[in-house]
Amino acid sequence: MADDVKDTKDSPEFPAETVSEAELVSRAKQGDQAAFESLLRKYEVMIYNLAYRMLHNRADADDILQEAALKAYQALPSFKSRSGFGTWFYRIAANLCLMKLRRGKRAPFSLEAMINRQKDQEEKEFEIEDASHNPATHFARVELRKVLEDGIAGLPSTYRVPFILYEIDNLSVREISRILKISEPAVKTRLHRSRLLLREKLADHIGHLKK
């Protein structure tokens, strides 16, 4: 998974410390291609990682990144700046992922995505004690991992997507609300429902999820 997570890059044309995002958006709206490319570089890692975590396929993640960039460029004149460019761009990509999930087969969920965080984020490890010396314990942990992966993959997309955005991408309820264009209470309801469904599937295999 570490090899699949992209690193951030600084924009050579518009250093972050000299040009604000609002200025980049303004220039891009006026047809400044370099400004738009700087905006893309700023958020391409976030978009790629979102797509990879939701689709678990590098080629699909690259396709989503390219398609989201094209849609953002085409829709830029109508961007009202009520939310940040990053949130708006993220919403475009999330919706593309949702459309792909609905069109195709359900993407397999890997617990590694829940364990490994982006390199540029504060690391929050999901600790699993080394049980290699105890075959019975090791088998139980492997079985738990498989049950959890199957449980998350089996969630309806209505509940699975906000769960992934919250539990894996560490987005806030407000951010998820803006991305999915649903109310914050609706996000909380879906997160609550996703946990209930998982607990039903996992039964005694897991104690609790993030509150």
UniProtKB/TrEMBL annotation:
Presence of the UniProt keyword Transcription regulation in the record: yes
InterPro entries: RNA_pol_sigma-70-like (IPR039425), RNA_pol_sigma-70_dom (IPR014284), RNA_pol_sigma70_r2 (IPR007627), RNA_pol_sigma70_r4_t2 (IPR013249), RNA_pol_sigma_r2 (IPR013325), RNA_pol_sigma_r3/r4-like (IPR013324), WH-like_DNA-bd_sf (IPR036388)
Pfam families: Sigma70_r2, Sigma70_r4_2
Gene Ontology MF: a single term: DNA binding
Keywords for the protein's UniProt record, in alphabetical order: Sigma factor, Transcription, Transcription regulation
Domain called RNA polymerase sigma factor 70 region 4 type: residue spans: 148-197
Signal peptide (from-to): none
A GO biological process held by the record: DNA-templated transcription initiation
Domain RNA polymerase sigma-70 region: from-to ranges: 39-106
UniProt xrefs under PANTHER family: RNA POLYMERASE ECF-TYPE SIGMA FACTO, RNA POLYMERASE SIGMA FACTOR
NCBIfam families: sigma70-ECF (TIGR02937)
The family this protein is said to belong to: Belongs to the sigma-70 factor family. ECF subfamily.
Name the UniProt record assigns to this protein: ECF RNA polymerase sigma factor SigW
Source species of the chain: candidate division TA06 bacterium ADurb.Bin417
Lineage, top ranks: Bacteria, Bacteria division TA06
